[in-house]
Amino acid sequence: MSPEPFSFRVTATEGAARRGTLNTPHGTVQTPAFMPVGTRGAVKGITHRDLEDAGAEIILGNTYHLHLRPGDDLIARAGGLHAFIGWRRPILTDSGGYQVFSLAARRKVTEDGVAFRSHLDGALCALSPEKATDIQAQLGSDIAMVLDELIGAEPPGTLDAPRAAMERSARWAKRARMRLEQLRNDPGSAPDVIVTNPGQAQFGIIQGGTDQALRTESVQQTVEIGFEAYAIGGLSVGEPVEIMYDVVAHTAPLLPSDRPRYLMGTGMPDDLVECIARGVDIFDCVLPTRNARNGQLLTSHGVLVIKNAQYAEDMGPPDPDCGCYTCRTFSRAYLRHLFMAGEMTAATLLTVHNLCFYLDLMRRIRDAIGFGSFGKLRQEFHQTFSRR
User: Fold this and answer.
1) 246-257 confidence digits (pLDDT tens)
2) Is 5 exposed, middle or buried, given 0-12, 13-18 or 19+ CB atoms closer than 10 A?
């Protein structure tokens, strides 16, 4: 497939909410978009066929996990991640920053990068801005993320750690951009790196914790470097949801209006609705797949915990308003039986529903923005959906 240039076009707006079209070397993504998380090259509990049927136009893979196993060298020799996993549509790869953050005691952060112990065998590994760029060049994702330093939620007024992480992330972002430009313009200078997708775009990441002044500085420094687009990182790490909304509302309008805006790692369905209302275009989260494996369905009326005894003889569909395969075919009683019996089919069927629910919500929101009725959809959604 000859690479098409990366581009983005806003096709409709309602308030800060935007509908758009994102073009990549492996196809087009309609935004707002939700990316199912396929950390190790597979979205847990579901096949690519069912992902496509659910309407997934783009999935996410992870640099850290794929580098450790099976290895980006192997994937590059196979022709890149798309060829290796058999997914023909767009892929975004995270840099591994969140996974390294989650290792806590196993990692050491320096100006050069991050040294850490592999969660697989304890081997000492290193990830730098340049190395994360090289790995993603070999994976050949359509969108590559820069390596950033992520920290947890800090108490209000605590700025030393967020500022240090933000400033280091900006320095790392510049190094990552320089490395990608080197691979683009002089691939012979890196003979050990097999670039499997010459049209790969690179996104910068905005940091700064929950402090709006730091977020503004981060936007200025990162946009000055010049990336194809930008992500809002460092949220959904323990801060109250209202604070997260405030940070998104402050940061999104500061980003270039002609580029897609990606909110990393968020979240619940109502979070998606609210952050779209604040100008975000792209989302990812493990929540719909992880919660499905733990027996939790996300429905038009809120959260449904299938193991609860009240569903033992409930012959109704999981979500009467959903047209997915699971809801068309199976009862709550049957799904509860599968889950309580430990059948792996339970995780698959619940995952199918949760992802269909998320992706259908995105479709409905896109349509509503196009028709100028997003405000009405937003109000009606909050009237029916409950987290409890």
Assistant:
1) 999 999 999 999
2) exposed
